[in-house]
Amino acid sequence: MKSLVLVAALTCLATAACGQKPQDAPTDGDSVRERAQEAQTARRRTGAEAQDRALNRVIRTVYLCNNSERLSVDFDNPRQMATVRNSSGEAVDLYQERAAEGIWYKASGYELRGEGVMATWTSDGRPPTDCRAVD
Fold it and tell me: Chain-wide mean pLDDT for the chain?
Protein backbone atom coordinates (compact mmCIF):
# COMPACT_ATOMS: atom_id res chain seq x y z
CA MET A 1 0.00 0.00 0.00
CA LYS A 2 2.78 2.40 0.92
CA SER A 3 4.57 1.75 -2.36
CA LEU A 4 1.38 2.45 -4.29
CA VAL A 5 1.01 5.84 -2.58
CA LEU A 6 4.67 6.61 -3.27
CA VAL A 7 4.29 5.74 -6.98
CA ALA A 8 1.19 7.93 -7.21
CA ALA A 9 2.96 10.86 -5.56
CA LEU A 10 5.98 10.57 -7.86
CA THR A 11 3.73 10.34 -10.93
CA CYS A 12 1.88 13.47 -9.82
CA LEU A 13 5.14 15.40 -9.32
CA ALA A 14 6.52 14.28 -12.68
CA THR A 15 3.44 15.32 -14.63
CA ALA A 16 3.26 18.66 -12.82
CA ALA A 17 6.88 19.46 -13.60
CA CYS A 18 6.65 18.47 -17.25
CA GLY A 19 3.20 19.79 -17.96
CA GLN A 20 3.84 23.56 -17.61
CA LYS A 21 5.73 25.71 -20.06
CA PRO A 22 8.18 28.09 -18.31
CA GLN A 23 7.57 31.83 -18.62
CA ASP A 24 10.28 34.29 -19.67
CA ALA A 25 13.09 34.23 -17.14
CA PRO A 26 13.12 37.23 -14.79
CA THR A 27 16.49 38.26 -16.23
CA ASP A 28 15.15 38.72 -19.77
CA GLY A 29 13.38 41.63 -21.37
CA ASP A 30 12.91 45.35 -21.22
CA SER A 31 11.84 45.48 -17.57
CA VAL A 32 15.20 44.10 -16.44
CA ARG A 33 17.05 46.58 -18.66
CA GLU A 34 15.03 49.45 -17.15
CA ARG A 35 15.78 48.27 -13.59
CA ALA A 36 19.51 48.10 -14.41
CA GLN A 37 19.48 51.64 -15.80
CA GLU A 38 17.63 52.91 -12.72
CA ALA A 39 20.19 51.23 -10.47
CA GLN A 40 23.09 52.84 -12.36
CA THR A 41 21.40 56.25 -12.09
CA ALA A 42 20.94 55.74 -8.35
CA ARG A 43 24.62 54.84 -7.96
CA ARG A 44 25.72 57.96 -9.85
CA ARG A 45 23.44 60.09 -7.73
CA THR A 46 24.84 58.50 -4.58
CA GLY A 47 28.43 59.14 -5.72
CA ALA A 48 27.64 62.78 -6.44
CA GLU A 49 25.99 63.13 -3.05
CA ALA A 50 29.03 61.61 -1.32
CA GLN A 51 31.33 64.05 -3.13
CA ASP A 52 29.06 66.95 -2.22
CA ARG A 53 29.12 65.93 1.46
CA ALA A 54 32.94 65.72 1.41
CA LEU A 55 33.23 69.19 -0.14
CA ASN A 56 30.78 70.76 2.31
CA ARG A 57 31.90 69.52 5.70
CA VAL A 58 34.91 69.24 7.99
CA ILE A 59 37.03 66.11 7.61
CA ARG A 60 39.50 65.07 10.33
CA THR A 61 42.70 63.23 9.44
CA VAL A 62 45.52 62.11 11.74
CA TYR A 63 49.10 62.08 10.45
CA LEU A 64 52.15 60.39 11.99
CA CYS A 65 55.37 62.14 11.01
CA ASN A 66 58.98 60.97 10.69
CA ASN A 67 60.02 63.34 13.52
CA SER A 68 57.62 61.41 15.87
CA GLU A 69 55.08 64.21 15.80
CA ARG A 70 51.38 63.36 15.60
CA LEU A 71 49.20 65.87 13.75
CA SER A 72 45.43 66.05 13.90
CA VAL A 73 44.15 68.04 10.92
CA ASP A 74 40.60 69.32 10.46
CA PHE A 75 40.05 70.10 6.79
CA ASP A 76 37.25 72.70 6.67
CA ASN A 77 36.41 72.49 2.98
CA PRO A 78 33.62 75.12 2.90
CA ARG A 79 35.96 77.72 4.46
CA GLN A 80 39.01 76.49 2.49
CA MET A 81 41.03 76.13 5.69
CA ALA A 82 42.77 73.45 7.72
CA THR A 83 43.42 73.52 11.46
CA VAL A 84 46.54 71.57 12.42
CA ARG A 85 47.01 70.45 16.04
CA ASN A 86 50.37 68.99 17.00
CA SER A 87 51.22 66.47 19.74
CA SER A 88 51.47 69.16 22.43
CA GLY A 89 48.02 70.56 21.60
CA GLU A 90 49.14 73.73 19.82
CA ALA A 91 46.87 74.64 16.91
CA VAL A 92 47.44 76.71 13.79
CA ASP A 93 44.98 77.68 11.05
CA LEU A 94 46.23 77.28 7.50
CA TYR A 95 44.60 78.61 4.35
CA GLN A 96 44.11 76.55 1.22
CA GLU A 97 46.33 77.35 -1.75
CA ARG A 98 45.81 76.24 -5.34
CA ALA A 99 47.72 72.99 -5.85
CA ALA A 100 48.28 71.25 -9.18
CA GLU A 101 47.63 67.94 -7.40
CA GLY A 102 46.83 66.96 -3.84
CA ILE A 103 46.56 69.42 -0.95
CA TRP A 104 48.40 72.62 -0.08
CA TYR A 105 47.63 74.72 2.99
CA LYS A 106 49.83 77.44 4.44
CA ALA A 107 50.08 80.39 6.79
CA SER A 108 53.10 82.42 7.85
CA GLY A 109 55.82 79.91 8.72
CA TYR A 110 53.58 76.82 8.43
CA GLU A 111 52.77 74.61 5.48
CA LEU A 112 51.05 71.28 4.84
CA ARG A 113 51.42 69.78 1.36
CA GLY A 114 50.62 66.31 0.19
CA GLU A 115 48.96 63.84 -2.09
CA GLY A 116 47.11 60.68 -1.14
CA VAL A 117 48.12 59.49 2.32
CA MET A 118 51.51 61.25 2.28
CA ALA A 119 52.13 64.87 3.32
CA THR A 120 54.99 67.17 4.24
CA TRP A 121 54.63 69.35 7.35
CA THR A 122 56.69 72.46 7.84
CA SER A 123 56.35 74.31 11.12
CA ASP A 124 57.89 77.65 12.02
CA GLY A 125 61.67 77.35 12.49
CA ARG A 126 61.89 73.58 12.06
CA PRO A 127 62.92 71.50 9.04
CA PRO A 128 60.13 69.90 6.98
CA THR A 129 59.10 66.36 7.93
CA ASP A 130 57.27 63.67 5.97
CA CYS A 131 54.00 62.41 7.43
CA ARG A 132 51.55 59.61 6.68
CA ALA A 133 47.79 59.65 7.25
CA VAL A 134 46.73 56.86 9.60
CA ASP A 135 42.95 57.26 9.59
Answer: 79
Residue 56 is given by DSSP the state T
pTM of the model: 0.59
Q: Does the CA dihedral 64-67-68-72 come out positive or negative?
A: negative
| Cα 94 to Cα 111: distance, rounded to the nearest angstrom | 7
Residue 91 makes CB contacts below 8 A (sequence gap 6+) with 83, 84, 85
Q: Which domains does the chain have, with CATH numbers?
A: 58-133 (2.40.128.200)
Under 8 Å between Cβ of 95 and 81: yes
Assign 4 to helix, strand or coil.
Answer: helix
CB–CB of 82/112 below 8 Å?
A: yes
Nearest one of 92, 72, 80, 82 to 56, comparing CA atoms: 80
Tens digits of residue pLDDT in 66-125: 999 999 999 998 899 999 999 899 999 999 999 989 999 999 899 999 999 999 999 988
